[in-house]
Amino acid sequence: MKTWKDAWFIFRKDLRADRLYLIWNVVFMVYSGVMISFLFQSGEKAAVERLLTPMADFMALMLIPMIGFYFSRRSFSYIKEDSYTQMLLYYRTLPIPSRTIMRSRLIQLVTAVVFNGVIFFTALYTMLYFMGEEIAGVQYISFALTWMGYALAMNGPFIFLELMTKGRTYLWMTFVFMFVVGILAFVISWFNGSLLDFTLNQSGRFGLLSPVMWGCLAGGALLLFLFSRITFRQLGRRDLAR
Length: 242
Description:
Elements: H1 2-17, H2 21-37, H3 54-63, H4 73-76, H5 83-93, H6 98-130, H7 137-164, H8 167-190, H9 195-206, H10 211-235
Helix pairs in contact: 1-6, 2-6, 3-8, 6-7, 7-9, 7-10
């Protein structure tokens, strides 16, 4: 229990220190939701039946994982200052155990997914509504939870890179992620598919019983757990001087 209490203390301390960055956080989430909404193709078919552009899939695959963290001075300076490594060096001098650091990061992830997810998906739904798209409430909730599961899955590897690599390595791996996502979106579009269209259809067909939604949530939680275990086991052995 003390470890969780200390983790909550670190999380609240970081949040208070970077509370002004939350403004940019909210702005970015609203902007992302609005931007993706404009990538829905207009046409005669209903939104649940239409094909979406590969760019929409690409933007969703790239941007939605970002709901898993808050903007902060540390996240803006990780390349120039290697701020995450400096944070770990500081925690080791206190000393703060690796378990507390991991739990603090997981608390940040869960609260960020809820906070940012509500903002992002509300902005997206609002824009689609004003664009004349009629999506049932239950269908949209299922759709949002499906993509939140994806965000959990992707944040497992991101947390590993954040805590286990230098800032420049983290940057290059982000570029690799963007490249892979771009190829994936193109291949799916080549075969006349769309991830957004598929998840929206499944949510409309099954609602909160959607197997895709539950699969994404379960798979995301499992992948997050596995990467968290790997990160925790290696965190205490990481050589922060290199």
